[in-house]
Amino acid sequence: MPIPFTPLALSTVTAVSAMGIGAAATRRALHERLGGLRPAGPEDRPAAFVGRVDGVDAVALPPELARYNCRNNRLAEMALLQDGFLAAAEALRDRLGAARVAVVMGTSTSGIAETEAAYRRRPEGSFDLPEDFDFAATHDLFSLPRYVRARLGLAGPALTISTACTSGARAFLEAATMISAGLCDAAVVGGVDTLCRMTVEGFGSLALLAPGPTRPCAADRDGITVGEAAAFVLLTRPRDAAPGAVQLLGAGASSDGHHMSSPHPEGLGAVSAMRAALEAAQLDAAQIDYINLHGTGTRANDAMEDRAVSHLFGNAVPCSSTKGWTGHTLGASGALEAVVAALCLQDGLVPGCLGVERVDPEFQADVAIENRQVPLRRVLSNSFGFGGSNCSLVLGRAA
Description:
Elements: E1 8-17, E2 20-21, H1 23-32, E3 38-39, E4 49-51, H2 71-80, H3 85-96, E5 101-106, H4 112-120, H5 143-152, E6 158-161, H6 167-180, E7 186-193, H7 197-205, E8 226-227, E9 229-236, E10 247-255, H8 268-280, E11 290-292, H9 299-313, E12 318-320, H10 323-326, H11 333-347, E13 349-350, E14 366-367, E15 372-373, E16 378-385, E17 389-396
Parallel strand pairs: 4-8, 5-6, 5-7, 11-12, 11-16, 12-14
Antiparallel strand pairs: 1-2, 1-9, 1-10, 3-4, 7-9, 10-17, 13-15, 16-17
Helix pairs in contact: 2-5, 6-11, 8-9
Keywords: Transferase
Organism: Pseudoroseomonas ludipueritiae
Protein name: Beta-ketoacyl-[acyl-carrier-protein] synthase family protein
């Protein structure tokens, strides 16, 4: 059964990815079809291309939070400084009270790159990690919400969601549930994941890495490109947002547990999540104007999602994946694509898949491969992950 849902406003949004730093750069990349994937460096083996964010290593955390220094938290800091997000969060804190604003973050690997570096710094023959390695503040999955909460001076509930590729989307659902239950009045919601050797080599071991930039939905698609991103949203009641703010209208999740790394071939869990999101939003399939696909670029995932989407929507709703711009940003992808969906709603934009000359002829859904300018009122954003985790969000304009 869908969770009873009261619409919530995305009162402030920001994102940093290979597309660019901040909402304006993200919007420009979408409209001008400027992808951010580029050849990998030696640190990214065995990937051919990655979605790397420039300038992360130069980011400095506030001195009092120096113990949290790792690539994941530096990327989070970079995003918090964009689009007036820091000031908006502080104003919300001052208005509602620090204890009434939650932090709900999605991440898949957190600061694991810091642990990788610590292992490389071990003295020869030693099994002990360096004494200056702070696992709790860097690698630990709770490092991210702990850092964000401290950075923003918040004292409300804090939660990490780590459900593979659905983490960033699932953070929205969990935050909405907490607000509905009266645990908080608003939430800083988002996802952050950064490139690390474990992730890249893990996908390489599964033979899922594309030799070039990923091309979701293409007839000759050949795998994923791993990327990194940070995306944050101030999720508030509509009265605490500016008039006309994009709203979270519904959310749905499922767990089909079909296989650890392969999706259910018919997309049964994906169908369940999308249907639950529609029911939570009290909408019919015909009322969705665009679907942001999970669309990783692998043969199995894209085919499954096409079957699931066409089962519910036929070919009546345009859909596309934006991972050709950013790569698959793992635990951040659901939050990043929620921000992308919000920008598309504001601009009336269906961003066609990048680098696709011909859509898989077996697909039945209406996959866009060129940008389309159309009026949008409601968008469905999909995230599907390892272990059969599925989550769908419905975003739209206030009725």
